[in-house]
């Protein structure tokens, strides 16, 4: 079982080293790390080039945003399964990819995901929010449920069947893709009840009120486009984030 990890970067010189080290330190030998940079000018590319020997591919060129970059990386992936790790984030420990690979040992399994913690920008050990995903049931999608996207690994064949990110969405293409896949997937979806990813707070979707409003509108569009729900599901999706502020490991 070979796992591809795709990272799209842009102006993350201060954090990309942690991300690269996190993937390089995984115990799973059969892995590849593909990095697509959007022509960063802040020193990110210099950090990437210093680690290029450990990468399966490194591309730096102007693009149309994170989803465009991720699509480029997915097109280059050769693993049996693929995961996405943002340039600000790290795996929770060195065994994450090995545990994911073990779950995929069952050929009926097409998706694997786990829990995620939001951590402080300057302290990966300080947990701000705990996203305990819980087991997957198709009906939960209509109540706004989704797995933490950075913890979701899909067989590469799933992308071949259902397509890549729809770049018409600027913020919610990940939600659209998960709805598209999980509402139709016929294979098994496995939940690993443990933290797989540590994500720094301050993502693009919640940097300002305008971004929050745009995210909600795009989430609604994705729900409607995939026939999963509408305003009710969107409300449940937003309300489901409240317990994350109180749940701890």
Automatic annotation (TrEMBL):
Residues 4-131 form the Glycosyltransferase 2-like domain. It comes from the Bacteria. SUPFAM superfamilies: Nucleotide-diphospho-sugar transferases (SSF53448). Pfam families: Glycos_transf_2 (PF00535). CDD domains: GT_2_WfgS_like. One of its GO terms (molecular function) is transferase activity. The keyword Transferase applies. Gene3D superfamilies: Spore Coat Polysaccharide Biosynthesis Protein SpsA, Chain A. Keywords: Transferase. PANTHER family: GLYCOSYLTRANSFERASE (PTHR43685), GLYCOSYLTRANSFERASE 2-LIKE DOMAIN-CONTAINING PROTEIN (PTHR43685:SF2). This is Glycosyl transferase. It comes from Thiohalocapsa halophila. The lineage of its organism: Bacteria, Pseudomonadati, Pseudomonadota, Gammaproteobacteria, Chromatiales.
């Amino acid at each position: 079982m070979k796992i591809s990890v795709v990272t799209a970067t842009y102006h993350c010189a201060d954090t990309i080293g942690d991300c690269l080290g996190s993937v390089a330190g995984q115990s799973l030998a059969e892995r590849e790390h593909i990095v697509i940079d959007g022509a960063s000018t802040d020193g990110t590319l210099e950090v990437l080039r210093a680690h290029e020997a450990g990468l399966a591919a490194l591309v730096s060129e102007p693009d149309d945003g994170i989803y465009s970059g991720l699509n480029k990386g997915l097109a280059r992936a050769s693993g049996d399964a693929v995961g996405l790790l943002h340039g600000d984030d790290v795996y929770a420990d060195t065994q994450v990819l090995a545990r994911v690979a073990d779950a995929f040992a069952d050929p009926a399994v097409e998706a694997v995901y786990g829990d995620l913690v939001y951590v402080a920008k300057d302290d990966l050990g300080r947990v701000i929010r705990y996203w305990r995903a819980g087991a997957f049931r198709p009906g939960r999608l209509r109540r706004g449920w989704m797995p933490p996207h950075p913890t979701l690994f899909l067989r590469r064949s799933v992308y071949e069947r259902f397509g890549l990110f729809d770049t018409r969405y600027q913020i919610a293409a990940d939600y659209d893709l998960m709805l598209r896949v999980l509402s139709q997937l016929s294979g098994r979806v496995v939940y690993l009840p443990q933290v797989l990813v540590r994500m720094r707070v301050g993502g693009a979707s919640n940097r300002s009120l305008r971004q929050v409003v745009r995210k909600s509108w795009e989430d609604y569009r994705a729900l409607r486009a995939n026939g999963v729900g509408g305003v009710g599901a969107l409300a449940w999706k937003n309300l489901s984030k409240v317990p994350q502020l109180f749940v701890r490991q």
